[in-house]
Amino acid sequence: MQNIRSEASQPGAGEALPGVPKLERQRLHDTVVEHLRNLIVEAVLQPGTKLNERELCETLGISRTPLREALKVLAAEGLIEISPNRGASVSKMSETEIWETFELMSGLEAMAGELACERITPVELAEIKALHYAMLACKAQGDLSGYYSRNQTIHNKINEAARNSVLTQTYLGLNRRLQALRFKSNYKPEKWDSAAHDHDEMVKALESRDGKKLAAVLRQHLLDKRDAVMNMPGTAD
Fold first, then answer.
1. Inter-axis angle of helices 189-207 and 122-140, to 10 degrees?
2. 1 CB contacts (<8 Å, ≥6 apart)?
3. Distance between CA atoms of 163 and 112, rounded to whole angstroms?
4. What residues contact 116, with CB distance under 8 A and at least 6 apart?
5. Would you list the domain boundaries of the chain?
6. Which residue spans traverse the membrane (predicted)?
7. Domain 95-230 carries which CATH code?
8. The dihedral sign for the CA sequence 155, 156, 158, 159
9. Secondary structure of residue 10 in the 3-state scheme
10. In whole angstroms, what is the distance from residue 186 CA to residue 36 CA?
């Protein structure tokens, strides 16, 4: 397991990780889980990283009690692993887990897309189109974090438009484990370009209520992400 940073660059007592803002105390209970989740998704905390509670508390400006509660939530989501003897560390999926999880997610997203084309409302479609244009604006600015946030909201809204609560619950639980890898899959410009093009096709299929086309685009979109991730060094054990 790697430490949160190398020994040569470990902060001294009272120092925080550079570039990571402290949390506002009045928003602590609403944001600490989401904040830590984002640090994992955006690879500030990479797979296999051993989490130092003291360092995280200093970095985020919080006490150990809310931190430990947040870690329990993230452990339940499969994003971290907590061991009585070794503490907490960021989960690292095996190659088989990555392959099979993306494979399953491709099927879930395809089903959601087909159902969404039957059930989506004009208001929901307009929201997705607005998010799509905002997402492309982020891409033009090289803002991967902003792009990914809007990208995930689009996928979530397509899933919501499917109007199937069991599908949504399964999708959200599974997707939490893949978010860091989905973010990582856009590191190469050509992969990012391809993903953005896929989203153009998604919007067109939704507008025309072409469920079979949207299902096919979503399925291949996820399988392409799987392949991009599998071809990146250091992805899995």
1. 160
2. 48, 49, 50, 86, 89
3. 9
4. 158, 159, 161, 162, 206, 211, 214
5. 7-90, 95-230
6. none
7. 1.20.120.530
8. positive
9. coil
10. 21
- Check if the beta carbon of residue 181 is closer than 8 Å to that of residue 80: no
More confident position, 2 or 92: 92
91 φ, ψ (degrees, to nearest 5): -65, 145
pTM of the model: 0.77
Topology, domain 7-90: Arc Repressor Mutant, subunit A (1.10.10)
One-letter amino acid for residue 132 of the chain: H
Summarize pLDDT for 121-179 with one digit per residue, the tens: 999 999 999 999 999 999 999 999 999 999 999 999 999 999 999 999 999 989 988 98
Terminal CA-CA length for the chain: 12
Q: What is the CA radius of gyration of the chain?
A: 19
Q: Which residue has the tokens 């999880």?
A: 101
Inter-axis angle of helices 144-161 and 165-184, nearest 10: 160
Q: What are the tens digits of pLDDT across the range 16-40? A: 566 666 655 545 655 789 889 988 9
